[in-house]
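Box 3.1 A note on notation
Throughout this textbook, protein chains are presented in two layers. The first layer is the amino acid sequence; the second is a token string describing backbone geometry. Keep the layers aligned when reading.
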Amino acid sequence: MIPLSWYLLLSAGLFVIGAIGVITRKNALVILMSIELMLNSAGINFIAFSSYLRDVTGQIFVVMIIAVAASEAAIGLAIIISMFRNKGSVSFDDYQSLKG
């Protein structure tokens, strides 16, 4: 059996990779994928603790995370397609006028 700490290390690694992608990249698609990576790392944590504690609550939360991730991807892709149609680019540098 794989120890709980390995799952936590995997999750932490994926979350750090996703956070670095969100912080350092300007491309909207890469940022969207990085957010998905961070959500999946949270899901790994929930599943690992659910299995460790023998409780199904974590698995229910993962289903919620998957639903949020799917809706976020659908809305995010729609916004990115709209951005590309308007300016021909998906880089956030081209959208400085969106700041409040």
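The chain has a mean pLDDT of 91. The longest helix spans residues 57-87.
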